Amino acid sequence: MHKLFKSAPLPFQGQKRNFVNEFSKALEQFPANATYVDLFGGSGLLSRVTKDIHPEARVIFNDYDNFSQRLAAIPQTNILLVKLRKLTATSGRQIKIPVDIKRCILKAVKAHENKFGYVDYVTLSSSLLFSGKYATNFEELSKQTMYNTVRKSDIAEATGYLDGLEVVREDYKQVHQEFKDANVVYLLDPPYLSTDTASYGSDKYWKLKDYLDVLELLEGSKYFYFTSNKSSIIELMEWFETTTLVDNPFKWSTTTTRENTVNYQHKYDDIMIFKQ
Ligand SMILES: C[S@@+](CC[C@H](N)C(=O)[O-])C[C@H]1O[C@@H](n2cnc3c(N)ncnc32)[C@H](O)[C@@H]1O
Question: Could you tell me the pTM of the whole model?
Answer without folding.
Answer: 0.90
